[in-house]
Amino acid sequence: ILETGLNINSDIDSRALLSRGGTQIEMMKTGFFPKDNLEISKIPIGSLVLLLAPPKTGKSLLALQGFMEQFYSGLSVYLASYELPLSQLRARIISNVCSVPLSEVQENKFILAESENKVKAFPYTLEYEIDIDRASTLLSKGLEEEILKLPKRKNKLTIRAAMTADELFSIGEVYKPLPNEVELLSEIKHRAKLGILDSFWIDYISEVPQSDSKESREGFITRFSRELKAVCLEYGIVGTLLSQVTNAAYPLMPKYSLALGQICDLQLFLANTPEALKEGMVYLGVGLARHSSGYVYYECAREYVSQQINYLGSQGELNDLLDELVKIHKKKEIK
């Protein structure tokens, strides 16, 4: 039994609890394709999500997109990035939100005046309740004062990632290593207790530093993910963990810890086929889904230029995709 702080004395008769209140389950937006209202667009509070993929498939891209979707929907979000530094995260987020090529954001040189104006409008969307298109339109008309009259966002956005010496100096901070699992768990709990955290993201779970170097990597990930699941249940928040896979042919097998897939309530994975790559597509598969039927895959367009992954409106049976991935792997082995 998880010690969530919500457990009830075993001597109490629970019949009254079962008959009290309604049966509706409180859901939270996952950040995955909210406009399309897919089964994976919402999940019960207290859930843990696992996003799997081989390298260079787009999982960090999809995670950042979901992270910002949650923030703009009014949720307080927290990202611990052990893969990408803050400078890269900032550029990718701006590219995604503004639909502007990543290279233009990184070089601060824009082909279109509209793109430059959107990037200038981006900071306003973080502070005020306004979307990027509206903010950009008002700025282009010289109506910044109209933005400043809008209500300010009350939800929080927190990112923990590596920073350069210049970035640290600009905010008056000194170098600190990224938190290990004990420190990270403590910070997530603290924010949840204060009511300033609805959702957290960890990229990658396998890269979180261990407080006990003697513990095996598999044992560490299994233990830590169970502790994160307990926190989600206790405080009614949602967590999303990113992980690589052991083999691209078997996308539901997390690297380092197979138990990770069973601890989480929703398993998602990104996968490619040669045909999909040619068409600029990627498949988003749904394995275990305790809140819905699951076992489907969604066809998505992958826009690396503007750092976006968009649902194309088609889906299929998961087993068909899994069979295709195994066939592709076997062909590669023969060659």
Strand-helix topology:
Blueprint (H helix, E strand, L loop, with lengths): L14 H5 L7 E3 L12 E3 L3 E5 L6 H14 L4 E5 L4 H13 L3 H6 L5 H15 L4 H9 L3 H5 L8 E4 L4 H6 L10 H14 L4 E5 L13 H19 L2 E6 L15 H5 L2 E6 L2 H5 L2 E9 L6 E8 L4 E10 H17 L1
Parallel strand pairs: 3-7, 3-8, 4-5, 4-6, 6-7
Antiparallel strand pairs: 1-2, 8-9, 9-10, 10-11
Number of strands: 11
The amount of beta strand, in percent, is: 15-25%
Radius of gyration: 21 Å
Structural class assignment: alpha/beta
For the biggest β-sheet, the strand order reads 5-4-6-7-3-8-9-10-11
Number of helices: 13
Shape verdict:
globular
Question: Which H/E pattern describes the elements?
Answer: HEEEHEHHHHHEHHEHEHEHEEEH
Descriptive report:
By secondary structure, the chain is of the alpha/beta class. The protein contains 13 helices and 11 strands. The chain has helices spanning 15-19, 59-72, 86-98, 102-107, 113-127, 132-140, 144-148, 165-170, 181-194, 217-235, 259-263, 274-278, 318-334, and strands spanning 27-29, 42-44, 48-52, 77-81, 157-160, 199-203, 238-243, 266-271, 281-289, 296-303, 308-317. The strands form 2 sheets. The chain has a 9-stranded mixed sheet with strand order 5-4-6-7-3-8-9-10-11. Helix 2 (59-72) packs across helix 3, helix 3 (86-98) crosses helix 5 (113-127) and helix 9 runs parallel beside helix 10. It is globular and about 60 Å long. The termini are far apart.
Short descriptors:
335 residues; alpha/beta; 9-stranded mixed beta sheet; 13 helices
